[in-house]
Amino acid sequence: MAKLKNEMKRVHRRKIRKAKERLKLAEKGKEPYSKLNSTARKVFYKRLKAGYEFPARIKSA
Question: Is the dihedral of CA 26, 29, 31, 36 positive or negative?
Fold first, then answer.
């Protein structure tokens, strides 16, 4: 059971890390918001709820 749990943790960490990388690209303007996957969008919405201020160039687009 522990082996499966560790594997699932590893998969989840990788998924979240990739989502955060995609958000960084979106903030720099290299990837449009519409191309973000669902995990990246969930992380983005969580940030907004926590009071995150995103760059002005995304706000104006």
Answer: positive
Long-range CB contacts (within 8 A, 24+) of 40-46: 43/16, 43/19
- Specify the pLDDT at position 53: 81
Angle at 34 between CA 31 and CA 36, to 5 degrees: 65
pLDDT at 19: 96
- Give residues with Cβ within 8 angstroms of 58, minimum separation 6: 26, 27, 29, 33
Residue 29's pLDDT band (boundaries 50, 70, 90)?
confident
